[in-house]
Amino acid sequence: MGRSGARSARRPSGLSAPGAPDRVFGMPERGTPPDTHEEEPRKGRFSRLRSAVGGRSVAGQVFLLQVVIVLLLVVAAVVALVLQVRYDTTQEARHRSVAVAEAFANAPGTREALESPDPTAVLQPRAEAAREATGVDFIVVMNTDGVRYTHPKPDRIGKTFVGNIEPALAGGVVVEEITGTIGPLVQAVVPIKDPDGKVVGLVSAGVTKATVGGTADRQLPLLLTAAAVALALSTAGTALVSKRLLRQTHGLGPHEMTRMYEHHDAVLHAVREGVIIVGGEGKLLLANDEAHRLLDLPENAEGRRVLDLGLASDTAELLDSGRMATDEVHLVADRLLAVNQRPTYLRGRPSGSVATLRDSTELRALSGRAEEARERLNMLYDAGVGIGTSLDVTRTAEELAELAVPRFADFATVDLFDAVLGGGQPEAVTLLRRTAFSGIRKDAPLYPVGEQIRFVDSSPQARALSDGHAVVEPRLQAAPGWRAQDLERSAQVVEFGIHSLIAVPLRAGALVLGVVSFWRSQKGEPFDGEEVALAEELVARAAVSIDNARRYTREHSMAVTLQRSLLPRSLPEQNALDIAYRYLPAQAGVGGDWFDVLPLSGARVALVVGDVVGHGLHAAATMGRLRTAVHNFSALDLPPDELLALLDELVARIDQDEAQEGDSAPVTGATCLYAVYDPVSRRCTVARAGHPPPALVRPDGTVEFPDVPAGPPLGLGGLPFESAELELAEDSRLVLYTDGLVEDREHDIDEGLELLRVALTRAGHSPEETCQAVLEDRLPARPSDDIALLVARTRALGPAQVAEWQVPSDPAAVAQVRSAVTRTLEEWGLEELSFTTELILSELVTNAIRYGGEPIRVRMLRDRTLICEVFDSSSTSPHLRYAAMTDEGGRGLFLVAQLAERWGTRYLPAGKVIWAEQPLP
């Protein structure tokens, strides 16, 4: 455009096109003699050269500036090179001095010459020969006092050396720059050592500064020559650049440039396309006549910010932003303008933007449809990402209603079958329930959320449910089938202003989950066919999410039901421990955490806490199997480590069976902690399989984590389990928990244990208070894992509740035992149990004397029941059997089983205990 502008600007004045050099470079414009045309090529070349070096044109000024810069750079380079050469020669002189001095000091015969009667006679010729061979200015040999033996000037021999010789006398090397007897110089002093390392003399070699400077001066002509060549090459390159610039600008001077810009301005205001130039600060710099007409700009628009010109907001923001735009359509008054905008740059930085405007009013109708289609596509996209964000049926229905209002309808309602809300299969005979409502106003006379609705057969909703397709009612006032649903409410709806309806069934495959209704009130036109298609697409996408939420609700309900059925409904009655517990499922679904309290023989109580990794039905079912196994194993009165070994073997078999089926994951992630507390001895035996250690709160409030050996998780097999025995004071609190309480994504288990310790320190004294305090302090807002917490406060059976006797291995001792039992029962106020108790203990003691081994002990406990125990050192297990009529024995255990409420055998490391329990009167 610049070249054409220059061409157009000159032709009215009688000048030729820019390609003619005699017109461009300042030759006469009028009155040129005809015979001068033959000299135009020569004069053109002369004019260009004169312009290039004269500085009257842009190219000439650039040429002079570049020559000056190159000259300055060459001068700086020459100075730097001279200084560098001098520095390098000085350094070379220092290195040469050291090398010559060390070579002469270590040369054969140098040390021996020092010991000769006349060292100068021997060393002076050698030193001068070495000096001439190496190119140094002097080689001086001296004794340790600095007295010279050699010197280039013989009159200096015998005089003291000028320089620092102390480091050399210490065995080092000295290099220094001084003013010596022959002028400024660089010298090195090195020691001469005997075989023992003792310094016996010194050697100095050096080069004068005159020699160093001469070397640098000899290199200076070469440097100046190179600088001259560089200057010539740079000047030639600059001339080539200036010549190219001269050719591109046609040698225009200020007058020509002014005329060119005037021509540009004329063209700019003559084109039938709006042109706007905006500066970097958002100010309008230029707007041609067409831009003023299209945008209806004020007369004084130039110099003002485009945001203050009263333009439409989107158009003003585009022009102010300076961003790139290509055929971007904007509605300005009654015109559709296609805007193209490109940013401009000045010296590499953004300096504003240039925009062109083209009237595209004929595209208005198409633009409106395109905008409507784009809005519908955006709404479908938003439906894909905004509906179904949670696996909750009600919330998913609410997301559908909220998305449709007000972008598609003024009111939207979602009605689902009751079975769908509970996760079940929808049935057409059941009622629907209003699940979600959204509208531009809250006072619409539609059915409220939560109300059950039975649609009449003539209603659009009922027809949509039965036909499986959307039903549109363009005019509700003239729709008797819809009004028949509820005459009073229908009249209120019409009076409210709602005039059009689309009812779309919620279908997920072959299932019909409910119906969605879209209502219109503000827009006067009824729903059309395209909007019905959009409504069907929108509901179809939402139906998939609602069905997924329904399926999840069903599975979640099944898992919760299974889990609750497997967890203990209530705690068993016992007196050894005061117990409180909490169980909190994870936010994402049920898991495999569990706990149990199991009364054992001898007033003992077992506490169990376990965890199966994972969530869902499989984890809950596995938890139930493990809990049942622990119940069965605990009935054998096994020690904790042996019980965990059996449980580990069971899990390994489960894994093996399920691996063969190939449809279930292994449960080797299961952990368990098993503890048995004895209120008589106040001892607690604990073993754990991959489970976090228990916490112990002493009566004084101190908290500790006892050192219980950590066994491997259940199912690994091959490794034994170890147990630890703790002695608990009365009123101590034993805290068992699962890892969800102490471990999450933000804290590792060590930090979680420390936080649990702090929470227990601040907790109350009772187990209930402890549970409440721990959960308030440690429970996350959205737990990602199940949490099981069990707090047991210990009690003790005092001496007044325990009676124990040592029994000799003599049948006559049975009578003594009966007498002692009778007296004890009288003291306890249990005379009613004397007969049965004497009979039970008589049979058990007699069996121990007859079939067991010493020592034999009898213990009687008064707890919730009366407990009788007989210990002997034999591990032989008694068996209950039916004696024949002719048998003389075999009826003792049968009588015990009949008289006692429960009885059994408990094995100990040193024997066994046969026990029997009787209810207290």
UniProtKB/TrEMBL annotation:
Main location, first listed in the record: membrane
Region described as Disordered: 1-44
Record carries keyword Kinase: yes
Domain PPM-type phosphatase, first and last residues per copy: 574-794
Matches recorded under CDD domains: HATPase_RsbW-like, PDC1_HK_sensor
Entry membrane topology: Multi-pass membrane protein
Residue ranges with Low complexity bias: 1-18
InterPro entries given in the database record: Bact_Sigma-Reg, GAF, GAF-like_dom_sf, HATPase_C_sf, HATPase_dom, PAS, PAS-like_dom_sf, PPM-type-like_dom_sf
Keyword Zinc on entry: no
Domain GAF: 392-556
Membrane-spanning parts: 58-83
Keywords attached to this entry: ATP-binding, Cell membrane, Hydrolase, Kinase, Membrane, Nucleotide-binding, Phosphoprotein, Transferase, Transmembrane, Transmembrane helix, Two-component regulatory system
Chain ranges of the PAS domain: 262-327
Protein name: GAF domain-containing protein
Organism: Streptomyces cyaneochromogenes
